[in-house]
Structures are given as structure tokens and as C-alpha cells.
């Protein structure tokens, strides 16, 4: 079939969606392209805006590169439009030749532990959304615990621990929203305990993020000598892997440090497998119970049967993110992704039960491959997906109404208060002006209605 134009919808304006649009526009192809990028938030950049911590301005700086792509003006943005509510798959089939889902992940993966539903037990993703000013989460957060546990040994666990332990004044140079700063400033926290069931040489932290903890003002890093009795496998990991080598070096330095003067402490407990959150008698978390583990000689760990308890009044589980299903689109409930082959979405044939390609539907980024990996990985993801979009042109949809105006008319007819690139510029400038007044780069606007009104030039 001869095609001379691809009308493409991309759902999700995080890095994966923006990279996919950019790669397609720059690719070698024999047809024109017109791309509409939809996001249910009134601001683009996904987890770079609403996941990466406010005190990581270097990473947030990736927004500059993503912004350059959008500012070229050859991709239309429709913010405040949710796929599944404001737009359906049938709508897309009527107006586009294909769709790429780049909807990422924003929820916490489950952790099945007795007591996990007690008051005072939280998901890291919810806390991250709160401190990063996500418009769809409550504006307040109950930061009333003196002792807190964080379960997990990845960078999100470090982000959560750092934000909990850091003095709020030291966040005031960042874009942290005012409601968040106020609540963090009143936090009574003294001790944050991070639990990982494996040893120091098996963590998923990256060295830079770990080292940063040691630079927190008035926070002692506490590590325990019993965790550094390395076996052969651990010693081999230190000798053979640069990342592990640096992590070990940082931890060994902390072992030598004088502690005791700081008003807050951040404890790293290794070989510590949480087994239960203990009720304080009122339905709230009163302690975390954990089992001491030991190396099993094969690179893993096994329980020792020794049970310990740490008094805490709040627990944050940072055990991973999980994607959300989208109406009409296949979903793998086990892995929280859209089933796909290199970005081509797969569906089950009702008769044979076999997986087959769902023509015109693609996935990229975290919803394609699962919520692991850095922003840069979403670029290679997008390349793979776009290659198939281009090669599949014989199987694209045949939309009955592909004009660029028709989607605008549809949104208008549904009364959807969508925002566009100019609107984003207005909101961006507004936030920067709020920041400049306080000597900060930006102060985020949090309520969705305010974001939309500012974007649409209504205030
Ligand atoms: C706490 C945290 C800290 C991180 N820190 C770093 C870091 O320091 N460095 C680094 O490189 N990486 C970091 N990452 C990883 C990085 O954020 C991800 O690799 C990247 O954001 C994934 O991109 P994505 O576009 O697939 O998903 P996302 O960034 O999640 O973007 C998905 C977009 O889709 C939109 N969307 C979802 N559902 C719908 C719908 N139904 N309709 C319309 N739009 C929808 C969302 O609003 C969002 O804008 C961090 C991640 C987290 C969670």
C-alpha cells in the first residue's frame, strides 16, 4: 500500500514519548509525518518533572534537551487530555494511522508483608509524587514520625531517605513546592533506617547517589560492622566491578567516620529482610521486624532465622514502580507492562490463544519494558519502536478523518480544557517568575486547575 503521510498519536509526554517523536521526525523515511503528543498532565516531561528529586538539578536539566525538541514546534502537544477518559482507542483509529503508548509508570509495586496496610505504611511512589508536586496526589503528607524505615536498596529508596533526612532549609534552593517545604520543615524525624535483604556489594544504588548521602548537613551516616564480613563472592564483586568498588569505598569511608554530633541519622542495614510491620496497638506502625540474612555462597542470600525489631512510626516501601492498564489495550498484570515485541503491541487471538500483533498500536519507555533504567534508556527504546512503526506502514490504520483540525474539534466538542505548547511556555514562565522572586530556579504550581488556567491564559 502506498502511503505518503503518517498521522501519529503518542500518549505520554515523558522522555519516552518525546524521544519517540524526535527520532521519527529525524528518521529516514519516504512519507511525511504529523505527530500529536497527548498527556493527561498539563505539563510535559513525565517522571523527569514528577519523579526525579527536586535536589537533583543536574538530572532535571535533561528537561532542557527535551524542551528543545518541543520548542522546534513540529510536534503538537495536547496537555490535560487523558487517554481512556477524554480519548479512546476508537477515537484514535478515526483520526490517526497509528498510536504509540509511552505512559510510563507512576504507582508503587505491591509488597506482600503482614502489616503493610497499617496506618503509617506508605508507598515511595506516592511520597515522591507528593514531594515533587504532582497535581493528582493530596497536598498534605503526615510527616509525624521520629523514626522511619525505608525498604529497598535502589535509587528511589535513596531519594526517599535523603528527602526524609535532609533539613528542609537545604531544599529551599530547589524547585520544591511551598506546601512540601512547609511540611518537611516541621518534620520531627531523627532516624531513617534503610533495609536491604542483600549485602553491600549487591545493592542497586548508583555510587553518585550513595555518596551524596554522606554530604547531607547535620546527618550522620550509620553503617554496621557486622555487614562487612565479606565472603569470596562479595570480595570478587569489589575487585571485578568498578561500580561495586566505588560503592564499597564510600561505605568503608563511612565506617571510619566519627559520628554522634548530628541531630539526624541515616542508617543502612544490609542483610536485613523485612518480614512484618508491627502494630503499635492502635492500628499504626510501631516497629519493623526483620530477619538477618547471610550469603548463600551462590551470589544470593538465605535467612538465618535470627529475628530483630526496630522501633519505627512510619515505613516507606521503595520496591519498584508498576505500570497501569489502559482501556482497550492489552496489559501484562504480572510485569505491569503492555505486552509487546520490540514495541509492537501484542494481543491474544481469541480463537487460537496465540499472541499476534495489534496493528497500529505500539509501546515505548517504561510501559514497554518495565519501570527500570535511566532516562537515557528510553532513547534506545524509542529507536527500536520507531523502526517498526516505519516498517509496518502497510499495516497502519486507515482513519476516516485524519485532518489535523478534526482532533481539535473532537476535544472542543467534549469540552476538554486541553493545553498546548504556548500554554506550557506560559506555565513555565510563571513558575520561573515565582522562583526568581525567591532566588530559586522555579517554584512549581501544584493544583491542576491553576496549572490549566495559567496555561490557557485565563489568569
Ligand atoms: C523517583 C524516581 C527518580 C528517578 N531518578 C532518575 C534519575 O536521577 N536519573 C535518571 O536517568 N532516571 C531517573 N528516573 C527514571 C526516569 O524517570 C525514567 O527512566 C523515565 O522517566 C521513564 O520515561 P517514560 O517516558 O517511559 O515514563 P514517564 O516519565 O512516566 O512518562 C509517562 C507520561 O505518560 C503520561 N500518561 C500516563 N498515563 C496517561 C494517560 N492515560 N493518558 C495520557 N497521558 C498519560 C504521564 O503523565 C507521563 O507524563 C527516576 C525515576 C523515579 C521514579
TrEMBL record:
<keyword id="KW-0285">Flavoprotein</keyword>
<feature type="binding site">
    <location>
        <position position="16"/>
    </location>
    <ligand>
        <name>FAD</name>
    </ligand>
</feature>
<dbReference type="InterPro" id="IPR036188">
    <property type="entry name" value="FAD/NAD-bd_sf"/>
</dbReference>
<dbReference type="InterPro" id="IPR055275">
    <property type="entry name" value="Ferredox_Rdtase"/>
</dbReference>
<feature type="binding site">
    <location>
        <position position="366"/>
    </location>
    <ligand>
        <name>FAD</name>
    </ligand>
</feature>
<dbReference type="GO" id="GO:0004324">
    <property type="term" value="F:ferredoxin-NADP+ reductase activity"/>
</dbReference>
<dbReference type="InterPro" id="IPR023753">
    <property type="entry name" value="FAD/NAD-binding_dom"/>
</dbReference>
<keyword id="KW-0274">FAD</keyword>
<feature type="binding site">
    <location>
        <position position="47"/>
    </location>
    <ligand>
        <name>FAD</name>
    </ligand>
</feature>
<feature type="binding site">
    <location>
        <begin position="197"/>
        <end position="198"/>
    </location>
    <ligand>
        <name>NADP(+)</name>
    </ligand>
</feature>
<dbReference type="Pfam" id="PF07992">
    <property type="entry name" value="Pyr_redox_2"/>
</dbReference>
<protein>
    <recommendedName>
        <fullName>ferredoxin--NADP(+) reductase</fullName>
        <ecNumber>1.18.1.2</ecNumber>
    </recommendedName>
</protein>
<feature type="domain" description="FAD/NAD(P)-binding">
    <location>
        <begin position="7"/>
        <end position="180"/>
    </location>
</feature>
<feature type="binding site">
    <location>
        <begin position="153"/>
        <end position="156"/>
    </location>
    <ligand>
        <name>NADP(+)</name>
    </ligand>
</feature>
<dbReference type="InterPro" id="IPR021163">
    <property type="entry name" value="Ferredox_Rdtase_adrenod"/>
</dbReference>
<feature type="binding site">
    <location>
        <position position="209"/>
    </location>
    <ligand>
        <name>NADP(+)</name>
    </ligand>
</feature>
<keyword id="KW-0560">Oxidoreductase</keyword>
<feature type="binding site">
    <location>
        <begin position="373"/>
        <end position="375"/>
    </location>
    <ligand>
        <name>FAD</name>
    </ligand>
</feature>
<keyword id="KW-0521">NADP</keyword>
<feature type="binding site">
    <location>
        <position position="373"/>
    </location>
    <ligand>
        <name>NADP(+)</name>
    </ligand>
</feature>
<comment type="similarity">
    <text>Belongs to the ferredoxin--NADP reductase type 1 family.</text>
</comment>
